[in-house]
Write a structure and sequence with these properties.
single chain; 266 residues; alpha+beta; six-stranded mixed sheet; 9 helices; disordered C terminus
Length: 266
Amino acid sequence: MQQHAYPPVIQRILGEMLLAASLLGASIKFQGRITVQFQGKGRARLLIAQSSDQLELRGFADCQPDLTWDELIADLKQGTLAIMMDPDREGGQRYQGLVEWQGDSLSESLEHYFNRSEQLPTRIKLAVNDERAAGFLLQVMPRESARSGQLQDHQNEWEHLSHLTATLSPDELLTVDNATLLHRLYVEEDVRLLPTRPVVFRCKCSLTRSENTLRLLTEQEIEEELRDKQSIVVTCEFCNREYVFDRVDVARIFKRGHSDSSGGIH
């Protein structure tokens, strides 16, 4: 949030999306990243949150700054929510799932996505304030086929755990440590805690990526920019880092086709 001067309403929804991306990123079984993205046509145009398998997060929002929470939710209901998985390895299959916004929260929409599209019963809790963000993901693990009696037992167990999870409040999420929270929620269950993993902010922008962005423009478009401003600034939407290219840099990019420009990073 330090990278952008987002108003509180946008901070909250982007915080929830970053939570969702990190919860899902912690469970992926490949090297790569998972993206939670909203695309709309109203005052909330674009929201993106990404997490790598190493829990490296980044995100940004393109929304009008004067939205109230109710106005934001109304706009979100008119757009589309996407879950995308991008393996880093060459030839890895990219996956994208789309779902319409459901209910009055991101958690409801994500639960709907997993319940309907992936057939994975899911409960998600998200809580954000000015200083902290905390999320909770309860999900049925994929299992081998079972007999009808076992399936009924599994369903009963899920409904029991789901009911207990529904009692979890945002304040508890933000103030109670993980071990206490889990043992308090599932007092009759054998709870096993796995080692913690750090969640960090890290952007994937680079000088090379910025040069490749310039290559998408025609030389005429480049010339018009240079004539008006003497330099071209490519700004990363995620971290606000600026990559500055003057006429000499642009000539090297277009004529030599490599990325040894002297463009400064600010």
